[in-house]
Write a structure and sequence with these properties.
Layout lengths: L1 H25 L15 H10 L7 H5 L5 H8 L8 H5 L21 H4 L48 H5 L18 H7 L5
One heme C binds next to helix 5 and helix 6.
């Protein structure tokens, strides 16, 4: 029986000293910064966060005032519709007054999200940057506001066909090459556009 009482006393003593130590630390009378044992700075913390200047707006605001409605409409239904404008462009609250804004995540940083990483969910689209068309920038093939592979050619094609005779200057708008295609030649088309099988 005595051995149980002794063990109980030791345990009680340990609990008591823990509670005393804890309350001294919480009151700020004792601290061991090297073990991260210091009083919580709850009030000053709240004040500190509340004092942070507001910097971010939101994606619908970018569309507002007829500024970027066109880009918004393309973006919102795209695969990037879940990636807020400001993720790539940086804080934009002040952008209404000061029109100075840039692309914070440019074509070189697409890999921040899309590089193949073992820990990423398998169903998240990822590529090995070294092996995936590394000779040119991501945005020459994928549009930041509407990513996805270059459209598949919906008709039969033959080697050496004159694509631009139908898709070049003078083509109806729904068939014309996009503006960023200026300078691309017939020889290059099939390196990006696959023919339907
Ligand atoms: C995945 C990153 C990303 C997201 C999300 C994104 N952008 Fe962009 N944006 C870019 C990049 C990169 C460029 C540079 C042009 C290019 O390569 O397409 C750009 C260019 C622009 C431009 C200038 C060129 C142009 O196309 O007129 C505007 C304006 C713009 N973005 C607005 C927006 C708005 C508004 C949204 C949200 C609705 C948005 N962006 C979402 C990456 C992004
Ligand atoms: C902040 C993270 C983030 C950044 C930065 C980003 N993306 Fe994405 N991207 C996403 C998400 C999220 C999706 C949708 C994934 C899904 O549907 O499961 C996506 C989808 C895509 C897809 C579609 C893949 C498919 O086949 O469905 C492509 C291509 C793509 N992004 C290319 C780019 C390019 C090019 C850039 C750089 C301009 C870029 N991304 C920057 C998060 C990002
Ligand atoms: C020369 C054109 C080209 C370039 C440059 C390019 N891609 Fe792609 N990308 C494609 C094509 C075509 C596909 C679809 C077939 C494939 O995976 O090869 C694709 C597919 C993807 C996918 C979807 C993969 C999946 O599993 O669904 C992602 C994400 C992607 N690319 C991101 C990028 C990023 C990030 C860069 C820049 C580091 C980049 N791409 C550069 C043509 C390109
Ligand atoms: C004789 C005229 C003609 C030639 C030559 C031609 N195309 Fe087309 N192409 C069309 C027409 C018309 C459409 C749209 C209707 C359809 O799908 O048949 C189209 C559709 C496409 C699309 C799909 C567009 C979309 O909105 O999804 C792509 C991509 C394309 N062509 C690329 C090419 C490439 C690359 C070549 C050269 C190897 C080529 N075309 C040669 C007439 C042509
Ligand atoms: C470096 C890769 C690349 C090359 C080379 C290229 N394209 Fe494209 N093309 C694209 C991408 C990416 C898009 C989608 C653009 C967008 O979403 O605005 C596109 C869009 C198009 C479209 C519009 C279809 C649509 O879905 O809106 C046509 C037509 C087209 N290309 C034809 C051509 C022809 C013809 C050539 C050769 C003169 C060519 N492309 C060369 C990447 C390429």
């Amino acid at each position: 029986m005595t051995h149980l009482i002794r063990a109980g006393l030791v345990l009680g003593l340990a609990i008591a000293s823990f509670l005393v130590l804890r309350s001294l630390i919480l009151q700020g009378r004792l601290s061991f910064p090297e073990f991260a044992l210091r009083p919580p700075l709850q009030e000053s913390n709240t004040a500190q966060w509340a004092n942070q200047p507001l910097e971010f707006s939101n994606s619908p605001a970018c569309a507002g005032s007829l500024c970027h409605q066109d880009i918004y409409d393309v973006w919102v239904t795209s695969d990037h519709g879940g990636v807020a404008c400001e993720t790539c462009h940086g804080p934009a609250l002040a952008h209404g007054q000061d029109t100075n804004i840039s692309v914070r995540i440019d074509h070189e940083e697409c890999t921040l999200c899309h590089a193949k990483v073992v820990g990423r969910p398998l169903d998240f689209p990822q590529v090995d940057p070294a092996g995936h068309y590394s000779e040119t920038t991501c945005t020459s093939c994928h549009k930041a506001h509407r990513p996805g592979p270059p459209s598949i050619i919906s008709h039969e094609v033959s080697e050496g066909s004159d694509c631009l005779s139908c898709h070049g200057a003078g083509a109806p708008p729904d068939r014309a090459v996009p503006a960023d295609h200026i300078g691309r030649t017939n020889e290059q088309c099939l390196s990006c556009h696959e023919a339907a099988r």
